Amino acid sequence: MNYCKIFLKPKKEESLLRFHPWVFSGAIQSIEGNPEEGDVVEVYGANQRFLAIGHYQIGSIAVRILSFKQAAIDADFWTNRIRIAYDLRRELGLAGVENNNTYRLIHGEGDNLPGLVIDMYAHTAVMQAHSVGMHYARHNIAEALKTVLGDSLQNIYYKSEATLPYKANLGSEDGYLYGGEVEDIAIENGLKFCVDWQKGQKTGFFVDQRENRSLLEKYAKGHSVLNMFCYTGGFSFYAMRGGAEIVHSVDSSAKAISLTNKNVELNFPGDPRHKAFAEDAFKYLEKMGSNYDLIILDPPAFAKHKNVLRNALQGYRKLNAIAFEKIKPGGILFTFSCSQVVSKENFRLAVFSAAAQSGRSVRILHQLTQPADHPVNIYHPEGEYLKGLVLYVE
Predict the structure, then answer these.
(1) Does the keyword Cytoplasm apply (predicted)?
(2) Average pLDDT for 309-320
(3) Where are any strands of DSSP class E within 33-182?
């Protein structure tokens, strides 16, 4: 198959020679042919040397690399990439395990498929395209999923309305590519939860906090726990299984609170230790007393673009400062940032500034990140987006 060709400016091929999976628009010298957004293109250095093949797109990132070798982007390509990713999840003890049927199967650049995310919930794969190229390939990807997963796969739900570039005017609608509506109860480390992949945030659940929830469970015994930005209550029911005395879940979304209550009831029916509140996080924190000795702060991304980074860091400082002020002496704070544009150093500085403002003695117990089914491509350090600290507050 003949693909359009992109030629880079002199010395602009260095990042590709280091296997970075993006080509920026400013690096392009010329284009042979007239590629449209989402087309597969070949990338060449100024010396006419082949460098890579990938999806063309409009914007600062002009090409997302699919392969650094000349390859046909066909059914075999998708099947092989998905099989490699699935084998890794089996090696990690996540796929095909009795007490866990929830994991990330494809994590974009981390699985050498930039622009694609696939999460597994029991027998359902939820697919998200973050690029036009992946959107156009969705049916081929669905067929590859069926080939690799076989009978264990009953549904593929495509959920990309909110993640595709809006300027592309694709008119994409979320819906099933395979199977139909089912009410799967997903299982994570033996705990059950309902997933609303049709209307929920992301793919329906925050799979990336699995190991951090397990860590929280080990600290929960005898504690009064506050789970801020609780979404569907993941940290809350881990805290309850860990033996927390009380657990309060807070989220501004009444729908999220309803799902939290449903999930708690699935695992701990009629348990009086849990209460949930649909309320703004900052308002709740401001008015609460020093009632909690274990607080979880897991807010949505405060910054999705670098131009709002300063405001985001102020938000993290403010949020953590209130928690430091209110938490009981000897309390433990789990605090996170899931903003990719917020570096580990920036996040730490925001939290450290908040600690200094409180005047309390604070120690780091753990430094947290995303789990192994959200792998970071060693050539793409930007993929390390989840940052977390577990802090002991005297």
Answers:
(1) yes
(2) 88
(3) 40-44, 50-56, 61-67, 102-107, 116-121, 124-129, 155-158, 175-178
Q: How far apart are CA 338 and CA 380, in angstroms?
A: 17
SS3 174: coil
Per the CB < 8 A criterion, the answer to whether 53 and 15 are in contact is: no
The pLDDT of residue 195 is 82
Q: Which CATH number fits domain 4-67: 3.30.300.30, 3.40.50.970, 2.60.40.1930, 2.30.130.10?
A: 2.30.130.10
Percent of the chain with pLDDT over 90: 79
Half-sphere exposure of residue 329: CA atoms within 13 angstroms, side-chain side = 3
Model pTM above 0.85: yes
Residue 152: both structure tokens together: 């264990």
Q: CA geometry: angle at 294 spanning 288 and 300, to 5°? A: 75
Residue 81 parent element (H or E): helix 75-91
CATH number of the structural domain 75-189: 3.30.750.80
**How large is the greatest C-alpha to C-alpha distance in the chain, in angstroms?**
70
Q: Active site includes 230?
A: no
Q: With 60 as the cut, is the pLDDT of residue 262 above it?
A: yes
| Cα Rg of the chain, angstroms | 22
By residue count, the chain amounts to: 394
| 275 strand-pairing partners | 248
Non-local (6+) Cβ contacts of 63 within 8 A are 6, 22, 23, 41, 43, 52, 54, 55, 56, 57
- Enter the DSSP assignment of 100: B
Angle at 172 between CA 170 and CA 175, to 5 degrees: 165
Residue 219: C-alpha distances to residues 104, 202, 342, 347 (Å): 26, 28, 27, 23
